[in-house]
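lol ok so funny story. i was supposed to be doing the assay writeup but got distracted and ended up predicting the structure for this chain instead. priorities right. anyway since i did it might as well share w the group, maybe its usefull for someone
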Amino acid sequence: MFGTSLAVLGSIAGWRYEQAVIGEAVDKFADDLVVLAGLLALSLALLLPFIRPVILPWLHAPSYISEAVTWLAPALVAYVMGQALTNWLVRKGGFRITSASKIIQASTVLAVSLCATGSIQGLTVASMGGYAAACVVLLIGAHRMGWLRDTVRPKDLLHVIRRHVKFPLAGALPALFDSLSMLLPVYWVAIYFSANDTGQFGLSRQVLAAPLGMISVVVSQLLMKRFADAKFANASMLPYLKKTCLVMFGPILVLGLIVSFAASDIFAWLFGNGWRNAGAISQWMVWAYIAPMLVSPLSGIMLVLRRVGSNGAWQILHCAGLLSIMSLMTFSSIEQFIRMLVFFEIFSYAIYAALIAYALHDYEKARRVNVN
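and the output, tada:
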């Protein structure tokens, strides 16, 4: 619940200005955008203690969710700053630093989770600690590469607000729906199933979804630059796409099969016999995590080719479809709910992959015409 709530708030806390960093041509403006995103996130974080007493009772949230929300404020600033600094470093070619931050984040989450023996409060602290550790690594790396060498004044921030105003206006709504898609399953489990089921489900997400998502982000950053360079040179994107698919498909398939057959025993060995059910959940959920991991890194094609409308439409429809299914269907057990969720995610990301393939086909066709 903590991680997905953070993702939802993080998608709007910086008003999407963190996404403008990677495409900014002027170094000073890119520096200013990072500061702007961080200040906007800090403003929302300071408001959270006043918002929490109003929102949580309205949602009929259990007490353990209220305790987890306490950690949201500091984590929110680290989350948004981490995204902004990652984009700044990608813009500068600092892929080693961004990759190191993901490794540090995953290691911190796993280490704290193991020490906390899988308790809900421990998982929350582990998630927050992971974002904080990654942010520190990114801050040090960005500073060494020249970030914030010049003073940032209020008029500088106003300038980049006006310069990139399309990001909050056009990108916030689809991003919010995309983040809500991550929150909805966790919220549903927390509200309609037991605290034990919520903890088991949360541990499964922490161990599988978080590391796979981090790998996906790193691959996305690398591919985004390759796709942008190819478009600028009017070159084919297919070689990068084929190479990525060949490199990722085999290891991911092996991981999926291992988790499908052995997750219960692995979780029992790592966290104790009481968390065996988290492994049983992972045996199904691993495929729901693998689907976005394989498809999402290719979404850079949509952004590079300026298919923002199609991309945003899929994000909104994905969230609306998930909400509709969960609202209209009743589930007798968490296992039944999870099976539905897995099938829905695989189907949705298959459609997303088809949209990406269609956009790429149009680009390759137009490119060949231009070459000839």
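Residues 2 and 133 are 17 Å apart (CA to CA). The chain has 15 helices and no strands.
back to the writeup now i swear
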